[in-house]
Design brief:
Layout: H1 4-9, E1 19-22, E2 28-30, H2 31-47, E3 55-59, H3 64-76, E4 79-82, H4 89-99, E5 103-106, H5 108-120, E6 124-127, H6 135-141, E7 157-162, E8 172-176, H7 177-190, E9 198-201, H8 208-221, E10 224-227, H9 233-239, E11 245-248, H10 250-257, E12 272-275, H11 282-292, E13 297-302, E14 306-310, E15 324-325, E16 330-334, E17 348-353, H12 365-371, E18 378-386, E19 392-397, E20 402-404, E21 407-409, H13 411-419, E22 424-434, E23 438-447, H14 455-465, E24 474-477, H15 491-497
Bound molecules: adenosine monophosphate.
Length: about 500
């Protein structure tokens, strides 16, 4: 029996002398060289006592060896569990306790803090540092450069990806070989990836965007990646002339636009810029096209489902929308209260079904039942609306919906007006407790650099444009919005920070 994911993504690297990874210092790792790294890492996993079906938790810097551990886990049929490198030891304790991995791979700098975590949950601890060294690297170096992949069927688990937990405790989304492979295949063809593509890869590899979307596509199509350890604008600008494509979160695009070296000439040979993981401001989309001539292609997905919708490669890439359902994936909008399908044009819960949808949350059957219907539809928690051409617009998370005096306020409706006001870079609207209304609308604006928005004028505009119940009870200036590493605005943090704004 074959190994579904390994055979499609990693086996083809055999004998490939072309570069697969191009590093910022100019070093290159060929496809075959990377496969040897995978095999040695697989040998090291076995030496650490990891077997097929075991979990491997990995909280390390983004390095070629770290990526090879992903391939090694797939080859061995172990379940890869990457963790955000920003998590504290207390947070890692939760994940290790929840997933009970055989092995916890950590940066040497964190080993002291994580030893107790590993011991408490019966995991073995090995180190892999940002410089590629560490006890695991030493162990891998002594292993054979060949490894026979273990048989794995399409429905076998490949990875647990914990949700980013912006609204509660993280849950381990169980993703199968076929969840990952089917999505990579659809995306590679939708976005026209081929062996001639070189991706400028500056995303983290602990998240679905950088690991499964970007990396799996490069592997599947035999392309290469310029593999940057993180978001470094100097390196991105320096190396962009060698790339053909880039996937980024909106922050990448705003940061590049802030830099005068980012010009039309620099991007002349690029064929594709993809954005996702957080909403791209329509203004960024427009500015980017004015500066470079490229229209950013926005898509929509999440940890539990990989990618669901995308703007077209050829055809109309519409700013402010996330495009149409990907081939093989059904996307519907339903009444959040009843689950009944809503007519086109109405705002409701986005639900998704297809081969990309995960198998449930690890050891959380109740959460799984709440969010994954018997019919196979996953209730995403995102609210959205289809236009007449099937383009989906995301209105926001349901948990961010504000109910004030019994009326629903979609933050995005207010934010879109705020974003258009003079002197405003961006905005966030949240609901916070209010003694009369249950919740009150609270709005924040972030000024454009060097400008001071006229709050009284903005307030007057809001009053003219919005029904009274949607008008913010207070409007304040913030220097920046709180964001997580994927660029998502942390509305829960804003709500917590201003919880007693109207009750104190
Ligand atoms: P994560 O599981 O961390 O990838 O987060 C997934 C969530 O990010 C989705 O449920 C959406 O709320 C949000 N998201 C992803 N892509 C987009 C997008 N293009 N526009 C707006 N929100 C997005």
């Amino acid at each position: 029996m074959p190994n579904t994911l390994y055979d499609a993504l990693f086996a083809p690297l055999q004998g490939t002398t072309r570069p697969f990874l191009i590093l910022p210092d100019g070093d290159e790792i060929s496809g075959d060289g990377f496969l040897s790294m995978i095999h040695r890492a697989a040998g090291a996993l076995v030496a650490c006592g990891v077997g097929t079906g075991d979990r491997v938790a990995v909280q390390v810097a983004k390095t070629p060896t770290a990526l090879a551990v992903y391939g090694a886990a797939v080859a061995l049929g172990a379940i890869f569990l990457p963790l955000n490198s920003a998590y504290t030891a207390d947070e890692v304790d939760y994940f290790v306790g929840n997933a009970t991995p055989k092995l916890l791979l950590a940066d040497g700098a964190k080993a002291a803090a994580l030893t107790a975590v590993a011991m408490r949950h019966g995991a073995r601890l090995e180190t892999l540092n940002a410089d590629g060294l560490g006890s695991f690297a030493t162990l891998a170096a002594s292993q054979a450069a060949t490894f026979t992949a273990v048989d794995r069927a399409p429905d076998d688990l490949a990875a647990f990806l914990y949700t980013s937990g912006t609204t509660g405790r993280s849950k381990g989304a169980m993703l199968t070989h076929d969840n990952l492979l089917s999505n990579a295949r659809v995306l590679a063809s939708h976005w026209r990836f081929s062996a001639t593509d070189v991706q400028l890869h500056a995303l983290p590899i602990f998240h679905t965007h950088g690991l499964f979307v970007a990396t799996n596509i490069a592997l599947l199509t035999g392309g290469a990646m310029i593999f940057l350890p993180g978001l470094d604008i100097d390196d991105m600008i320096r190396l962009m002339p060698r790339a053909t494509s880039m996937m980024g979160v909106p922050t990448f695009y705003t940061r590049l636009l802030d830099d005068p070296r980012f010009t039309r000439e620099l991007t002349a040979h690029m064929r594709l810029f993809v954005s996702g993981s957080a909403p791209l401001l329509a203004e960024t989309h427009v500015q980017f096209e004015q500066r470079t001539g490229h229209r950013i292609l926005e898509r929509y997905g999440m940890t539990e489902t990989n990618m669901n919708t995308s703007n077209p490669y050829e055809g109309d890439r519409r700013a402010g929308t996330v495009g149409t359902a990907l081939r093989g994936t059904e996307v519907i909008v339903t009444d959040p209260a009843t689950g009944a399908r809503l007519p086109q044009g109405e705002v409701g819960m986005i639900e998704v079904r297809g081969p990309n949808v995960f198998k449930g949350y690890w050891q959380m059957p109740e959460k799984t039942r709440e969010e994954l219907r018997d019919t196979g539809f996953f209730i995403t928690g995102d609210l959205g609306q289809f236009d007449a051409d099937g383009y989906l617009t995301i209105v926001g998370r349901q948990k961010d919906l504000i109910i004030t005096g019994g009326f629903n306020v979609y933050p995005k409706e207010v934010e879109m007006i705020l974003d258009d006001q003079p002197g405003v870079l961006e905005s966030a609207v949240v609901g916070v407790p209010h003694p009369d209304f249950g919740e009150a609308v609270l709005a924040f604006v972030v000024p454009l650099p060097g400008q001071t928005p006229d709050l009284a004028a903005i307030d007057a505009t809001l009053r003219a444009k919005l029904a009274r119940f949607k008008q913010p009870k207070a409007l304040e200036i913030l220097p920046a919005l709180p964001r997580n590493t994927m660029g998502k605005v942390q509305k829960a943090e804003l709500r917590a920070r201003y919880a007693d704004r109207f009750t104190a």
